[in-house]
Write a structure and sequence with these properties.
Number of strands: 8
Radius of gyration: 22 Å
Number of helices: 8
Helix content: 40-55%
CATH architecture: 3-Layer(aba) Sandwich
Order of helices and strands: HHHEEEEHEHHEEEHH
Number of domains: 1
CATH class: Alpha Beta
Strand content: 15-25%
Distance between the termini: 81 Å
Amino acid sequence: MISVNKFTFRAYPLLICILVLLLASCATSSDSKSNNNEKSLKIADVSSEVSKNFDPKTLTSLSVLPVMVSSEKEGTLGVPDIGLTDRLITSLQVYTQLEIETFKKDQKTNVSNNTSSSDKAQKEVSRLFTSSGISPESLFKTAENISDSLGGSPVLYCFVIKNKSMTGGGAGAEVPSDVEYRMWLYDGKLEQVVWSSAYRSKQRAVTENLFSIGDRIDSGIGFSQVNDLLSSAFRASAKKLDRLVQSKNQNTRKLN
């Protein structure tokens, strides 16, 4: 009788875990899958800051540089990621009303005194696409040069500092994904970064908090792959930028 009680006591946490999983799976309908993206936008822990010298209502367009991802091989240096760059561009195109300028990956341009400003900017971007490793400081300098080439037009650049994939899968992830990035908007006319956004995932392993499993499954972002987390965070950053611009525009219309 005592051995049975001991077994029951030891198995109790496991039984709770299984019960929570069953309840969460029952509560998750086919309709909730279509709403996962919207839910993840609210859950993604994205922050942003804006310079006091920046007037958001003047922002109508921006150019996007390749997303640089920290490489284990290169240490703290970042290498270009075309897939993530496309995800960032898509997020900005869908969730903001800004005109998004992009650059070609393989275009080669010979720079001379007669070269147009856009060709000079493309030359700088081509170097990024072929870079074997670049630091955040060097990325800022490149953004500065490109903005100057474009007459001071705003340039958005992003550096993914951490991008470790989870071990395991879904709700059973033993080691969840670890993702962190910083995003900056450089304005050549003001000669400074005027807006920035940051994201750091706060996922925990399933064994750390059994009672949060249901919320994580229902949100659609609980134990996600790196690219899914970044896509969700990119969307949240884009929405924050759009809300900043739109709120300033609305205030201006009220004053007029």
